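> tool_call: predict_assembly(chains=two)
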Amino acid sequence: MALNWFKKLKTGLSKSASKVEDALASITGKKSIDQETVDNIEDQLILADLGIEVAARITKKIKDQKFELNKNKEVEKLDVAKTLASEIEQILLPCEKNLFENITSKPHVLFLAGVNGSGKTTTAAKLAEQFRIQNKTVVLAASDTFRAAAVEQLKTWGKRVGAHVVSGVDGGDSAAVAFKALQLAKNEGKDIVIVDTAGRLQNKKDLMEELTKTCKVLSKLDKNAPHQKVVVLDGTVGQNAHSQLKSFNEAIGLTGMIITKLDGSAKGGVVVSLAESYKIPIHAVGVGEGLDDLQTFKATSFSRALAGLDEI
Amino acid sequence: MSFKHGRNCGLNIRFGIKMFENLTDKLGNVFKGLTKRGALSEGDVDTALKEVRAALLDADVALSVVREFIDKVRIRAVGEEVLRSVTPGQQVIKIVNDVLIEVLGSDESELLIDHAPPAVILLVGLQGSGKTTTAGKLALHLKSKKRKKVMLASLDIYRPAAREQLKILGEQAEVLVLPEIDGESPEKIARRAMAASKIQAIDVLILDTAGRTTLDTAMMSEAQEVFKLSNPSETLLVADAMTGQDAVQTAKAFSELIKISGVVLTRSDGDARGGAALSMRSVTGCPIKFVGVSEKLDGLEPFYPDRAAGRILDMGDVVSLVEKAAETIAEEDAAHMMKRMSQGSFDMNDMLKQIGQLKKMGGLGGVMSMLPGIGKLQKQMAANNFNDKAISKQEAIIYSMTKKERINVALLNASRRKRIAFGSGTAVSDVNRLVKQQQDMARMMKKMGKMGGLGGLKNMMSSLGGGSSNSEQVSESQSPVMDANRMAELQKMMGGNMPNIGNMANRFGGAGLPGLGGKPSKKRR
């Protein structure tokens, strides 16, 4: 699975504007890292959405590094790429955390939130599928009572993954749907409740408060619920991801994030600066529209892909 | 926050909260240094441009576009043009503004759909960019504003319930939606939709396609196929305003394969810095035809490059605000209120009406974001617990008053105030505060009826929504909301010699904002 992800990610990266290989080409024949190469590397990191500050810091580390020269007394391109990968990896590694670890409570409530169109419903279905494979029974709560046909979308997925879908009336109270789902899971002894909430922009205060309320309502049935509160981030997003993470974290106290749409030409490099600023665990990445296209986040693979290296 | 720039720390510490700055704020900071100087050297321009570069990159403008932009500005800024001008800082602002407008496209662009019907509008884009919602919004726009007979058809056979979603949106917009038939390919649906449009004398057929990544060759050739056979009058690339550097890739990939005629930038009501607009515009060479500004069907607005540029340069979107206010508030209402205001009879009913109108315009946040130089003010307001919630609270208090009380506040003795507080779920102190605010406002209204102007509006903004609880205890200049120095600074920034700003300020001051106070427009009367 990991290989599959890596391949997809690598393909995306190789076709995208950010080509670390090209950036490093200017080093050929040089005895040390010169300003041209430094600038090139920095540009590539900016193009990968790492943000100017993180890009500058990582590049400076590479500049300050003493590289061993090869037999032609040149700096080896591969060594630079490896250093780059390891710098990124160091930032990401503390945030690598499997979503399925330590699921002890029953029913376990997983709460998904995010901006519109980030891929929450598809992610909910993919997660339900993973739980199904682990022989766990899943209830999907269609808490998106606002968007047209959001419930139908989740119901279709529910049928495919054999999960019970709890829904309410269109335009109704989304917290009530989540509550109902948890109640049902408790009564029928289901293992997992996945709450799929409506997309909302993080600057809409009332909508963010609705999320806080939904979590509070759930905690009335189980004081630890929701056990996991995960934000779904679109991989094509730029620096606005910071604002998203901050607001969603303030509203519900995030326990993790999932990055979607990394099968495209976007690199999702903003997660590097997110990891640094917020230390919120990164659980998984979405790499396609299929049910099995959700893969565990691996800091090493992600870093190597960003640095244009093959997987170990 | 480690990714933030050091120079803003002072502000953050002062207000005790970490804030995300937008491009408007950043450029504001950059040019604050410039406006304070008498003369400007080449070095100053370069320093400023370094900041502009950083701000643009931070705003997710694509690297290549940033380079192009900076080069253009530098060529124009360095040299005589700047050195000879009286206020160099403003001159640089103007150049940055001009280039920004140029890159964004110098005029608004209408949809080209007026030839032999049915004209086809094809919507393409990445997954989750907002194509289906945009299709619904476009349908409503064409139907209600352009008087077109519209049909919607979904070619998204992949995402579960995508077609159901479009059907519901079509019903909401009250336009025809092509019925769903199972097992058809997107190409086949497109053909059927075109045939159906002809038979039913449809003016505009909107084709909503499935989201696709540009790397998916099969899906991309499907899009190309649909494009060829439907021969669209408009092919709109729907893109998320929050897109990062990938905006260039997406725009390139789509426009290399099919002829894109315009861009729709969705989620423009978020707090994204919106660099994608600049990137998309310069890469595709196509105008940004619309921006999506809410989840509701009427949340589609034309894109005005000059306004967008103005927003980026901390000039706000005053024109937009005035128009929106005019749309929302009925003329008679406004005239009526103006009359009452100038007489100084501003009672609780008037206040209630104002609160309602403020809410309609997207709440305080919505109105404030359209005002120039208001970014910082907004943050201070947030820090001071000045928000839409406070306004709802005030609404509740007024609703708990009797009709007589609303007209004559003098009736409100202690026991009545206690009852109102109980009825509205607030404290007596909240009621007291509201009464004081209403009286303050009535006074201010009377004054503004004579004076008019933006300053008045801002003062009023401060007194709406609980800000005055502070000003009761703290002198005005110390209160973050009412900081007089800051106000003066903001107004100075707006009153500069840039024709654009002056013009806007005139329009603002002249037309006034019905319902928000200000002098009634002579033109309107």
